[in-house]
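## Example pair
The file below holds two records. Each record gives the amino-acid sequence first, followed by its structure token line.
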Amino acid sequence: MTEIPRGAVARTARLASLPLGLAGRAALGLGKRVTGMAADVVSADVQRRTAEHLFSVLGQLKGGAMKMGQALSVFEAALPEELAGPYRAALTKLQEAAPPLPAASVHRVLSESLGEDWRSMFKEFDDKPAAAASIGQVHRAIWADGRSVAVKVQYPGAGDALRSDLNQLARFAGLFKAIQPGLDVKPLVQEIRDRVTEELDYELEARSQTTFAEAFDGDPDIYVPPVLASSPRVLVTEWVEGKPLSAIISGGSEEERDRAGHLMALLHFSAPARAEMLHADPHPGNYRLLADGRLGVLDFGAVAHLPGGHPEVIGRLTRLALTGDSQAVLEGLQQEGFIKIDAKVDAPAVLGYIRPMLDPIAEEEFQFTRAWLRAEAGRLANPKSPAYTLSRQLNLPPSYMMVHRVTLGSIGVLCQLEARAGYRGILTEWLPGFADPAVKEPTVKKPRRRK
């Protein structure tokens, strides 16, 4: 493969093979059942083949197709185990790897972006990619001054590929519902589309990463690698050596899981206060647990700009919900546009809908688990549940879409980690409005620089 398949017809044909392949395997399964093979064996076989096909098509197409796969992969923790198992390994692959771009194509992009003498910028350059993502792949190299660096190279045709995919993916909502029942794909596709232009511009990503790196410079818990060079299609940063969260999810120790979960939550809630931005791509491939215990954070192509930090109303309404003030919560949600003023809902019902979601911060410590997330997903998706009925009256204002998606994605990763930590304390320190105004909280100090 020399570059991403660009043509809408060719890409649509490959995407169309996903539901067609699923239908074919279902028919094959029916045939096997007729001949007497056990239904559970047939089902597992069909699901395994579907997962392998999904990874193959999304990974080869890269672009928006792979980005959709990555977005879905963080939600697998909400699936019942008998459904999640066959998909977990295939979808996790999308977080760390994909079929590589040939060296000749990589060299062409580097020459066009950094100049014909681009090799003079490096002492060494490894043509074999160390990692791959939705619109680019990363190569390890040695910078001219001897530092290990990561060189992110955008796939040729990435822009056309993204636009083509995002125009087609919503048509195949049925397939994605097989992976994540109840998922409304169209808003997810629309939000990804809204971020396409930003993510295609590596110079914009470089500016965002630099802002984060400066905000967390010297931090004892969070590490953001500095940017060394950038162009619209190439980004060079310092290399981050650490254990990927995907490896911790699959085989990490309890201590590693808890530490990673604590640091992910700390990043999520402290970044808006310190950088006025939110890292908006929470999948395990973007994080490393460093040997010194810090969380290394990668990929700043998707960020949410939050001037002034997290909206104070989020913390205040969360605190009021925990104290049981249902009327104040209802009025606040109405003012923010989450509930229409004329909607026929009562305050206790609204509180009953919200309160179980807040269990992770109701106590000093909480352990996220797949079982907890599956129970919540079931409560909200069951048509017979009062929560499901009430959800039809709720609305997600566009201004909260990104924060909401990032929060859900982060919770998905925390449940994959099954991490126990003091999440309430993190919100008390970093989320405006959450701390009880009647209790004087200690002044938050910026961490001292590391020596």
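Second record, same layout:
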Amino acid sequence: MLDLSFEAPKPKVIAGAKHDWELVIGMEVHAQVASKAKLFSGASTEFGAEPNSNVSFVDAAMPGMLPVINEFCVEQAVRTGLGLKAAINLSSAFDRKNYFYPDLPQGYQISQLYHPLVGEGEVIVDMEPGIARRVRIERIHMEQDAGKSIHDMDPAMSFVDLNRTGVALMEIVSRPDIRGPEEAAAYIAKLRQIMRYLGTCNGDMQNGNLRADVNVSVCRPGDYEKYQETQDFSHLGTRCEIKNMNSMRFIQAAIDVEARRQIAIIEGGGEVVQETRLYDPDKNETRSMRSKEEAHDYRYFPDPDLLPLEIEQAWVDGIAESLPELPDAKKARFVKDFGLSEYDAGVLTAELRNAVYFEKVAAEGGDGKMAANWVINELFGRLKKDDRDISDSPVSPGQLAGLVKLIKSGDISGKIAKDVFEIVYTEGGDPAAIVEEKGLKQVTDTGAIETAVDEVIAANPDQVEKAKQNPKLAGWFVGQVMKATGGKANPKAVNEIVSAKLGL
């Protein structure tokens, strides 16, 4: 596989009243496992169901009900770990995280504090061609989600919906390797892309299937490098956690406003207090939620109802063999096999469905570069204008490949191809048949083209003299000939004959 080399981006620098400051960001991403059943029960995970309709006795914490691990959820977490080049721990265990909240029926959350299923990995976060950030993954542990408290349906009461209770989550914990708001959003996007390729999380942030807790701190230039050398966190500032972010735009805004808040405190002679905060998008500010808890605050202990989770290496190897080609590998292959730019390959691999569509067009059309140009510029542009995605495209890969073949063979020009594309997009049909029926085939007969050139030259003697003085004006004749032939003349042949006739 071709490796795409890259350099690390420069960290975001914010100018304070007294000094320059750099950002340091770590993230805890909660990704809902793509599974039809919950982590410890057979209840449905369907989104949008009637409140409290997807709740088993286990989810509701009825007396005597015991959790039973969902093997498929474990497999999905292992698959995610392998996709992030992470170590898979053959032995892991579940713990109880004890706290009270109305939407947590058990009075505790089953999680993995001490022995997570997945260990260290990494994500390469592309910022622009040749620029990327390597973000280290510290761990991925499995846990069950809580329910949802609803406070805006009645002025005097709150309601609880337990449909999400017990849904399997993967908490993906990064090292503090992210250095700016844009990088943070790009990191979330890359995680989402990888998991969608793997089929382990659909990444729908609007539905809460992917959300993040963002840890933000600031330090003086040079201090981060000391941390990297020593892994001593004392070189970094005190971090604050911004809880439950489910919007790329809000994540970036929250990081920026929180960093500036911390800078103002430090430069004012105060100290940043480690705490959990919430972001208010209406006021564009973060506000204190609670002081930062430590593990002992939750009285963690091994869950007595669940045995340690033991998996076999052969099972993990089987999952590894079933992994699809992932975004970085696919992007590198597109650059190598089709001669695409990194940018174009990145656009085409952003979503798996887009990549699959493009490869079909390239294979049938016989020209990867031309296929990429038509998929990205014409098809994606039109779909975006119509607010549609590739799964809803009225132009099939076979139809677009047929158009590419017609251009490649010289049967139609790029200009006529756009007209044919419009017909196929709005009315359907086979491109080759449309070209034949409407008489759009490109004129390649040099005799016919020469006749058209002679007529244009004879009718415009003044322009001929000007073109001989300034050869760039020959383009005017080319345009006139194309107009006279209804755009069907071969442009290359027209250029060559015009130049010859004018003696240029």
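Notes on the second record: The first strand starts at residue 13 and ends at 15. The chain is about 40% helix and 20% strand.
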